[in-house]
Protein 1
Amino acid sequence: MTADEVRLVSRFENALGIVMHRVRLREGRVIAAEAASLA
Amino acid sequence: MRLIANRKLKTPAIGCVVIDEADRLLLDESLPDVRAIIRATPAGRQLVFASATEQPETAAAIATLAPDLIMLRTGAAPVSENIEHRYLVCEERDKPDVLRKLLHALPPGRAMVFVHRNETAEMVAAKLAHHQIAVASLHAAADKRDRKQAMEDIRSGRVRVLITSDVAARGLDIAGVANIVNFDVPTQSKAYLHRVGRTARAEPRGGRRR
């Protein structure tokens, strides 16, 4: 999603009772964004 | 309606009418047909309205169609707890390329990619096909034969990626859909709910990305 669309994350989380995790692609794998920023 | 009009469907013997996806079928555009179908059935038949979501407009329509309605709520969480929800942030122009890389990174299994517009479905399908990814597209602008072919392709496993608009978000039950990708993110949580409902259908786990 784009930076503009990120605002929808909290909407979905609140309305649907879910938790959405931000991820990134690195070397052909999906990894947690937090892990990417620490690497 | 056509089956009834052509007398292919014998309505006097009908004992139960099920209106699935009621929250959509009872909106203005479909409501006259639903009323006509119900009118064509015997007065003593049972009416069942099924929906994953509720909205005031449809509640009003149901009240007129079934004044003695008994509401049953399952009490289940609206979204399966077996679905993992993840999102990637990128520029709009990079979405097709990110999608391609994401599809390679995802575990094996069928994927449904949701877009807002028919044209986007065609564009994304063409770009993925260019990179030798077996893909089909399913959207409202496609003719009936192409839509049928797309469904056969994804169900048979001939392709593992289905690019689709919300026309396919409801009612479809495609086995083995492991991943839902919102290429275009829905603005309403209800739409998100229906999209992700295409995975984890009696399966252990599903993922949703973007």
Protein 2
Amino acid sequence: MSDVAAASTTDAAAPAPFAMITGDPSAMVCEGDVCYIPGTEPGE
Amino acid sequence: MAPATRHRANLPVRGIRRPNHPFAYVVSEPIKIDIWSDIACPWCYIGKRHLESGIASLGEDAPEVDITYHSFELAPDTPVDFEGSEVDFLAKHKGMPVERVQQMLEQVTGVAATAGLDYDFDALQHTKTLKAHELLHFAKEQGLQLELTERLLRAYFTEGRHVGRVDELVELGAEIGLDADAAREALDSGRYAAAVQADIAQAQAYGINGVPFFVIEGKYGISGAQPAEVFAQAIAQIAGERDGAAA
């Protein structure tokens, strides 16, 4: 788990005006009809 | 961006406690939290609970927060009426292996239970959420967006209600205090369709591909249904930084 101080800026492909707080890298997100851990294949 | 909905997370403290400051409490602006979410997103409801738990865990030191929900339609190609279960939809309509679908649903049901949510995927009625998002924008104008968000998520995931039909949405809206006739007019007219699309476009501009996605004070992004302690830590630290900057 990381905190704000350890936040890194988003990558160049994401022109978001905010820094990302990594938190728990295994936190689930939903995209389309499936939910998955970022960095893995959807449905894994 | 539309005005935020004020939310105190049922906490009595308006400002940030500063024990070493001449004034015990400094009244400050609420911390703004923007959340991109979909009613049909199981991890969005779990993430909502985790955020609420994280804020509550700060106790008296919790800053006031303003939470605004933004539309994110996970599956725009979903029909309003789908005859079948969630497993049927994902397996037959989307071509996913049944075993994988069942594993996914069992996993999310288990995590939801630990967050105090009783998901019922057997009763769930898969549907298009566009109209639900329109009603959420109407509710935001009425100062009832948070109430409607909770009501729709509960209706969808735990009660098997159909949140794609206007009649059902109007009924659910009325339960949390929306005027039924005005809600129906808002949905029938499509008056809030543009606001829904504006939220979705904003997400795309931010590079948000998945939900839930939290933006705190417009400066920090948090992706996914993070544990409560992540939200607590982030909010406490951001409040501390702001408090320090204001000193």
Protein 3
Amino acid sequence: MWPQILTFLSMIGAFLLIAAGLRQPAALATAGAAFVGLAASGRLDQLHHLVEGAFGYFDVLLIIAMAMVFMAALESAGILEEISTRITRRLGKRPMLLSLASMLLVMAPGMLTGSSTAAALTTGRFVLPVLMEAGVPLAKAGAFVALGAILGMVAPPVNVPVMIIGSGIDMPYVGFDLPLLAIALPPAIAASVWVARSVRRPGLGGRSAAATASEAGGTGSATEGGRDASSRDTDSHDDERRIPGFKVYIPILVLLAMMLAVRVSNGSVPDPGIPLMFAVGAVLAMLCGRPVRPWEAIERGIGLALPVMGVLVGAGMFVQVATVTGVRGFLVVSALDIPMAWVIVVAVLALPAFGAISAYASSSVMGVPILLALLGNNEVVTAAALSLLAALGDLLPPIAIVPSLISQATQGGAQTRGDILRRLVVPGVLLAAWAYIVLRWAPAIGRLLS
Amino acid sequence: MVYLRLATASWLTPVYLLMVAVTAVAVATNVLKQRSLSGQVIGGMVLVPLLLRLLMVK
């Protein structure tokens, strides 16, 4: 057992040193930890395991790549901007509906790609200035977008942490839609109510998301006062950029229809795979909006996906080395020795803490042994709750990837990031408590949902 | 010959190989444009499984 403990400690040490000490990306930290694990266990002649491990999450990697191309195509074609504008114009005078629609808008990219960064980088950027214009303080609006991004990552149809945990115990990604929705929906509604109470300026109905975003300038200083001439000019210019008609909804509707058809057809509709569905959606997005240069959209989408793809490759290497060296078995056996009530406490603490480096790596390294220790506790609901805990890590320092991206979008720097993080403390603790409740009563929740 | 036989094993295989190829080229383009060394290394890490799958080596 001691060799495994030493290997595990050296891997975790290397991981923390590279990620937190040297401030290198999580992808390099996981890959570096895998290499150190091989060296610590005297297996430096078995470097092929790193290549083997790189294929561990290849399917998920392709899903993320195509999903980000889809999001980039939607954004380049002006479809995201158009949908944001329609929502703001229609719901600007109703704070509750505005915050609910904003939450849905922020969650959508995360739901489709399984990546919180996708949500923060795309619709999050449009929603943030709209909320600020409605009178929500910058830190609270940022916290709202951050919560929406991680709830979108958890919500169906695509939840990458669950896919990773499932692949660790050969559990297919089937039957997760309802449990994931049941886990993500209540916090999403609660966060919307939280923000709706701060909306002080009803009457946003005439403004568009793009106009509001350009006025806010990303600095958090939303223009006060009425409509001056330049504001009217911005609006009229913005009106010229509008995309008329129903066609803006076609890419998203076709994508959802394809996903739904495969799930309800019981095999009579052939499953082309999620990556191909996103690729079809991307082609439709390029045809249904403003003219797009296809290769530029593809290159931008892959560029946005590259850090996440890197983490998946690194996490695959980490898991492969952990398996080869016996560390994974050691973790599983140790987890099985802990009483069930304590396993849940360990899950609530360890998954977000490890997720602070990478939610995907946390799902793989901590999620799999914890799920094995909780076998018989309704694995589907349990895996869904564990994915929420892993996703919570995206809000936590030292990396705090989602708040960092949001503060970058507002050009607010470290001060804004700190303010957003402080605003996230209470919602974060409540989310962890919610995950605890779901884990504790997973069998009952499972029966309720079936 | 073997590659062609494998690549056309079903109607979905060539479609998926095309997606993998497009992704690999886009990753390579991003790597060439990256200024930071860590970004280039991450791109290289991602390229390895993409190229091996494209060549159907693994």
Protein 4
Amino acid sequence: MRARGDRRPARKRLDSLLAIIDRLPTHERDLNEAAASYLLADTYKLEAQVSIQEAGQ
Amino acid sequence: MKRPIALALVVTSTLGLAFAAPQEREAIQVESRSLDGELLLSVRANDKPLDNIIEALADEAGMRVSGFDGRRQRLITVDLYERPLDMVLEFTLGSVGLDFTLEGNHITISGHDATDRDALLRAASRGYQRALNTFPSAEAAPAAHLSQAWIAEQNGDLGSAIAMYQMIPSTYPGYPELAAAEFHSARLYEELGNWRDAIQHYDRLAELKIDHDFHAAQRLGRARCTIELGDPKAAIFQLQNLDLHSPALDDDEAAQRILVRARANNARRDYQAALADLDQIDQLQSYLVRSADYQRNTAIALEGLELFGPAARAWLAYAERALGNDRLTAVELAVELFLDANDESAALYAIRFGETLGGSPKLTALSGVIDERLGLVRVQPTKPTSEKGPAERLERARAAWQAGDLSATYSALGPVMNDSRGLIEVDRAEVLCLWARCLDRLEGLDAAIDVLRTNRPQLTSLENRMRLDVVAADLYEAHGRFDEAVDAYGGTYR
């Protein structure tokens, strides 16, 4: 989803996962929360890159 | 470690409770505790209306909520344990694509999350920072540092960007991101005109024992810096080596290398060779022929060969593509060269173009020369240069400084700092140096260094940048900050 450029739905799904992250056992929770947190920031960065590229064209 | 949360809500609603069935509200479990002064919230709700959850959280945190227009009925599931309020809100609202702001004791819900460039960059930076704070050892952490540096670069803060890139070698030695960190540090130092620092990082990149894709770019960057440091012959040798060991992958890469070679040939005063290089780029039909750098090198080569008319036209082409004060300087050069070529009408055209860029005293003076050559009587003679012109102000500031009159120096330079159009670059550098010395006395060292740091990249010539470096180093020394003084001589102000 993120690779296709469909970033807002991706963010919703990541936030939905993070909203229930404390249901997971500690180890899995930490792994998933870390991955989702970095991915969430990546979605904003990728969208900013597209915005900058479009403005430069 | 998790534990059940079982706090039935008995708080009477202040905003949205009237819309929720009592059993829904009761099933939302919220509690809080304070840890080291920070309020941590726990919440559990399964398929409950969003507004009920947010209002329950707000009640628990002693806050008010607004901005729910038409979005209150969405059902969501939340299960978070002892998290800061902003994190709980971010995950909860983010799961339905909403955003929020926290001001005082007020939560405002907004319709959608970041959309414009600046908001996206802010959101990305906030996200990376939170992730790095919470999970500094995660696999994605080094790449997040690269992203943070890139965001600083996009915001125009090259100094911070370099500092962030340089956190990677110390924090994550041996990681693949190290190569990108060294390459981008070098590239930014180059952009700032700090050639020695740039070379240092290009060399560190060359010494890395990890796989990366920056080999060709590293050698090309190093060659560019070598030219700027006054050794174009060595740069040409480096470029030959590069072509020998890593042939260009496509015409665009080949053109980039040839343009650096043209710059080296210009620096060696081998203008014929430079023109041949530029012609080769043209043959490759590269996009680079439309770049400011291409036009600048063309102008320098043609001027070197005393082909004044074509050189003037190339300077005009450069002026159309360049940024900042370089544009007017290029137009002034074009007018002078047209006059050398005895082409007064082209010179007049160039002057008109210069006027659209704001004009300058030098262009006004050159306009007078053209009128004289054409035998024209000036219907509206040029006004005598105002005593408040930038050149006169600089002269006044110089005299005041020599007389030890700090106040007069400061007041003479103030307007020039706001608008230095009409000054040639060496004079602009002198204005900056004097201004920094004034600020050092009046506002302190940081203010002085800040002016020098901010304006240094605007100066195109290495000599003028070095003038600023000397003043920065001098000021650091005067304050007993000798390490920083050494760095300032190298073009880095901390």
